[in-house]
Design brief:
Number of helices: 13
Helix content: 40-55%
Largest sheet: 5 strands, mixed
Strand order of the largest sheet: 4-3-2-6-7
Radius of gyration: 23 Å
Oligomer: single chain
Shape: globular
Number of strands: 9
Length: about 350
């Protein structure tokens, strides 16, 4: 990067400077998480291999107009209060007597996953319409790794969750040491693939001491159930459906994941795992919080082979509508000049499209 000390200049080697836009994006992310100066320096080392001193970082922040930790961007105070409450209530059950102190040894040592389909009955008299959500969360760091809206058992939920699991593996090119799930029937494909990948890419790890998957009652899967506790209050997300609403709902979930992973977990002195930091900072620099990275790397060709082995392809398994209905609806939407679909205008678009679809004879 021009204007900075690179190897051989003034005897200083800062490592490899990232592209200007990448550096600015990272600095903005650190500000969003309200990281301290020391934490930002650690992140730059871990993410970019960049070794700079405090004074250089302050100059870079000034150059790119990055807020300091003392002047963060205005927070969404209401959402922050809710998130603090969720973080404090690790059981996700508001004192229902099922509290279990959580512990884990590091990033990807245990990933908890579950589905949420409570409260999805649509208020309109169109019969029951469901929008299940399936999520994966790293127990040690608290990071939401993957959160996605899925079709409701149209082609077999186990097949769908198999593809969702492979999406997670593909995103991180790794599997966790252990997956914790409830005792639902939708985990069959995931169990087979997790077990197979563990045996192939971590054969030295004992399955007796560290089983690849553990089944718990949903009420005891507290790491992911805490997220459902928060989402249950969001009635908009539980009302979205069919062709129009799942993408809008997914956008809401994506925003929630970004916010959750960047918000600061309330300090809990009795907590056995990290607190007082953002989940993203913990998963990026686990050693700074007394943990380690326990992920098991998986090559792309293995992921692709497993994906092809699932009886129903990914596109079909994750499609909320059949191809004929989607094509018809796409045509109606195009006839309306393809308006952007958001939470604020979704029902307006819905009411415009419904009579046109009826008129089309679908």
């Amino acid at each position: 990067m021009p204007g900075h000390n690179e190897a051989g200049k003034n005897g200083v080697d800062n490592g490899t400077w990232p592209l200007e836009e990448d550096l600015k994006a990272s600095l903005l992310q650190y500000a969003k998480e309200s990281l301290s100066i020391d934490q930002r320096l650690h992140q730059l080392q871990d993410e970019h291999g960049l070794h700079i001193k405090r004074c250089t970082l302050l100059k870079l922040q000034k150059k790119h107009s990055i807020p300091t930790v003392w002047k963060p961007p205005p927070p969404d105070q209401a959402a922050q209060l809710i998130l603090n409450k969720v973080a404090a209530d690790t059981s996700g059950l508001n004192g229902a007597g099922h509290h279990t102190e959580l512990t884990s040894m590091g990033v990807f040592a245990e990933v908890c996953c579950d589905g949420h389909d409570e409260g999805n009955a649509l208020g309109l008299q169109l019969g029951p319409v469901n929008l299940p959500i399936y999520g994966f969360r790293c127990k040690w760091s608290g990071v939401i790794l993957h959160l996605v809206v899925v079709p409701n058992d149209r082609l077999g939920l186990a097949t769908t969750i198999g593809h969702v699991f492979l999406d997670l593996v593909d995103a991180y090119k790794a599997i966790p040491l252990k997956i914790t799930v409830d005792k639902g029937s939708e985990t069959g494909e995931m169990f087979a693939m997790q077990s197979s990948l563990r045996r192939n890419y971590a054969p030295g790890i004992s399955e007796n001491e560290h089983p690849p998957m553990v089944f718990l009652k949903s009420i005891h899967n507290t790491t992911i159930e805490g997220i459902w506790h928060w989402l249950h209050a969001n009635h908009e997300a539980s009302s979205l459906f069919n062709w129009l609403w799942p993408p809008i709902c997914q956008a809401i979930l994506n925003d929630f994941v970004a916010y959750w992973n960047s918000h600061r977990i309330q300090t809990q002195h009795n907590k056995l795992m990290p607190s007082g930091a953002t989940p993203r900072d913990v998963i990026t620099s686990p050693q700074a919080y007394g943990g380690e990275h326990c992920s098991i790397l998986v090559p792309q060709d293995a992921i692709d082979a497993l994906c092809k082995n699932i009886p129903i392809n990914r596109e079909e398994a994750l499609n909320f509508c059949d191809e004929h209905f989607s094509n018809t609806t796409d045509g109606v939407w195009n006839d309306l000049n393809s308006p952007p679909c958001t939470v604020s205008n979704g029902w307006e678009i819905f009411t415009k499209m419904l009579p046109l679809l009826s008129a089309s004879g679908h």
